[in-house]
TrEMBL record:
Protein's UniProt keywords contain DNA repair: no
Coiled-coil regions listed: 129-219
Keyword vocabulary terms for this entry: Coiled coil, Repeat, WD repeat
Record-linked CDD domains: WD40
Lineage: Eukaryota, Metazoa, Chordata, Craniata, Vertebrata
The protein's name in its UniProt record: Sperm-associated antigen 16 protein
PROSITE patterns according to UniProt: WD_REPEATS_1 (PS00678), WD_REPEATS_2 (PS50082), WD_REPEATS_REGION (PS50294)
Entry-linked PANTHER family: SPERM-ASSOCIATED ANTIGEN 16 PROTEIN (PTHR14604:SF3), WD40 REPEAT PF20 (PTHR14604)
GO cellular component, one term: axonemal central apparatus
SMART domains, alphabetized: WD40
Amino acid sequence: MDADAANGAFYLEQVTIIDDAEDQYRYEEVSIADEGSAQDADEDLDFAVRSLQELSEDVQATVRRQGVGEKPPVTRQLEAIDDFVRNFLFRMGMSRTLDCFQSEWYELQEKEQLGKAEQGTVSDVYIQNQELHDKLTSLHRDLAKFQDATRQTQDMLVTLRKERDHHRMHHQRVLQEKNRLLNDLKRLQKHYASYEPALRSLREKYEAALKEKMLTKLERDRAVGQIAGLQATLHSLESGLEEPTPIIAGFHDATETGVEGPSQRRLREARQQGVAPADEPAKSSAARHPKDSEFPVDTRVNPLLGQVQKQPSDAMRSGSLRISQTLKAHEMPVSSMALHPRKEIIVTASDDQLWKMWSIPNGDIIMTGQGHTDWIGDCDFNPTGTNLATGGGDSTVKVWDFSQGACVLTLEGHGHAVWGCSWHSCGDFIASSSMDNSSKVWDVNSERCRQTLRGHTDSVNSVEFLPYSSTLLTSSADKTLSLWDARTGRCAQIFYGHLHSCNHGTFNLKGDTVVSCDSYGVIKVWDVRKGTATMTLNLGPHPANRLSFHPSGHVMAVASDDGCVRIVDLLTGHVETLSGHEDAVQAVVFSPDGDTLFSGGSDGTIRMWE
């Protein structure tokens, strides 16, 4: 269309094409071998010039092919006026105006009313303006993109600066903490270095004490041998037999020295009275005290067995108990709890050297006991509920009378702290366990130790009488549990199986099952008759501190060091967790009816679960 406009008007005329067959021109046939040959004899000057031109064009074509890819020049042809108007209207979306323009334009063109000026080309400035406008539009788009990218980069830069400042502050804080820890470490190293001389001194004292012990033992053996010899001499003198008097190595006879010793004086006094020392009652620890109590026979019936028939509630089995009341009992951890055998009263013992008596469920305080000089580890009511026994870190066991409101008896004899205490069902005996690796059976009436149970090789952490029996259960840090006969002080059975220190052990009401827990949260259920573990539960890794049987014997509560109380169904092995304490749970106990669970913890509170 641009070419037509440039060449002016055009017309249509009829032209007849003549067939070649009707043409009278004679064509001459030229062979292919003769075409373009430069060696013919009849070549002329024109053919030679034409051959040179072709050769020159071939050389130029070869040079262009071997060149660096030069682009052929582009000749811009000016746009016609009507095309410019059409393109403008089309670009602006003015389709109806475009139709009107084309109709009028072709009409004027048909009528030959358009001059050459109107049918010419658009000036170059319009095309340049259009190109500049297109470039400007493209630049505006690029500018908008770059502005968006700049804003995003600025936001990212601000974020990176904030993160840099945060990490810089964190780094400075870590450096400060590191320096503080290094200072603390140096101070601790200096502090522990000061203990080395004390440890050496204690080790030397210990070795000296061992030597003195061995020397004392040798002297005792010599004295026993001397007494035996003197008794034999006295017996021979009285029977008229002239037997030689034995002389103990290292000692001299009184006839040799001329000095009468205490043994000779005692023999002389005995001969004067006519009574031989061998006939006198021996003054030993086994000598009977006038006020000594008698152990009851083991054929009694346990009246608590009737509670075994009561089954635990569904809430107890499923672990859906809820806290019904919370009492802030002490400012320091609650170490033990004991329920009154007849009344709705609970006693708590604490590390603050106090025990307190509370009425339940209203939580009113009734009485406070103060007398221990160190923490209290355990407490227990006597069967009638009129007295309370407590044992603590001052190595004593104290008996408190509620009617007098004071401590009426202090039992001393343990070498280290007392961890546990338990009343006998008759109310005349108290068993205690201590860190000195022993347990003791105390007679309340004669106010003395009747038996010392030795056999554990580490601290004895708990002690408990089998209800209405003289059998004792102890758990120790030597990873064993032991059954003892309190009347004779002999060990009847030892339970092996724990791999860590045993914290507590207890009987069920039937007395045929024992459960124990250790410092790694492992629970073991033992068959007393077989002496083997029937069930093992791992509730660790936190220590299990104390256990309590439900009266039915089918459910057990575990006080854990992670601040939870766990309910264990011994029939299925199912374990439920009760959370509520803010610190480690130290004690748990079921009410006699089995409907309420009490727990005490290191947060100084006791909580009732129903």
